[in-house]
Amino acid sequence: MRGDGDGWWFSPDGTRNWGKHGAAGLLLRAPLDDGRPGVLLQHRAVWSHQGGTWALPGGARDSHETTEHAAVREAWEEAGIDQSLIRVRAEVVTARAQGGWTYTTVIADTAEPLATSLNMESAELRWVPEDDVDTLPLHPGFELAWPSLRTTSARVVLDGIADVAVLEAALPRTVALPGEGFAWLLALELSESLHAESAQITAVITAGASAAGLVGDVFTLSVEEMFAS
Question: Domain check: are 24 and 132 in the same one?
Fold first, then answer.
């Protein structure tokens, strides 16, 4: 069904962007077999705007929708992603145009790479290892945004956590870093493995209140914060 957001937004300077009420896309991560995060990317159909490039499932936001709703709906329409199987973590405005148009990237996780289904807007859908995303010919807008959206691998250390099994069920996952940027928290069984040697930062999960900020290469999250989003 065609929504009331479909159409071009024309900025005062004459440039145009898709989505009369702005646009949104879903950046969906899942752990691959080796624990690294994979990202669901769409190879855009040749006939579409910027056809032949790779980007996130996404599109125009309708006037009654939140950006989260729009991104999740587009992922269902373009990739067959069931919203009940994903967990939204954050959203970031990753593009703006004169006059008020915005593109919002909604960041979400799922427990495993989900099966997908194509519609006519997609030539291919692929779970791409995060480290390989920038080796593909990316949509110009996504290419600009990607450095701020990619994660830093984080080793997980527990501090005073009694119920480890509950915490294990919440990992791996994406978390927003203090200030800006994102981290991928490794599953506990990987945090002490060779894979974790490549981790650039450490996330300390504590039973008490967390300290604000990133101190060196360490940041702290409370259990409550782990389950807040």
Answer: yes
Separation CA 127–CA 165 (nearest Å): 28
Q: What is the CATH number of the domain that holds 114?
A: 3.90.79.10
Q: Which residues contact 228 (CB under 8 A, 6 or more apart)?
A: none
Whether 214 is covered by a domain: the verdict is yes
Same domain membership, residue 161 and residue 139: no
Mean pLDDT of 170-188: 87
pLDDT at position 194 is 44
Q: Which of 229, 211, 174 is nearest to 221 (CA)?
A: 211
| Residue carrying structure tokens 């909604």 | 106
Domain that holds residue 208: 151-226
Same domain, 125 and 184: no
Cβ(45)–Cβ(121) under 8 Å?
A: yes
User: Quick check: is 2 in a domain?
Assistant: no
Query: Would you tell me how many other CB atoms lie within 10 Å of the CB of residue 36?
Result: 20
Residue range 47-96, pLDDT digits in tens: 777 778 999 999 999 999 999 999 999 999 999 999 999 999 999 999 99
User: Which H or E run contains 104?
Assistant: strand 102-109
pLDDT value for 217: 83
Euclidean distance between CA atoms 171 and 32, whole angstroms: 13
Tokens 């499932």 belong to residue: 57
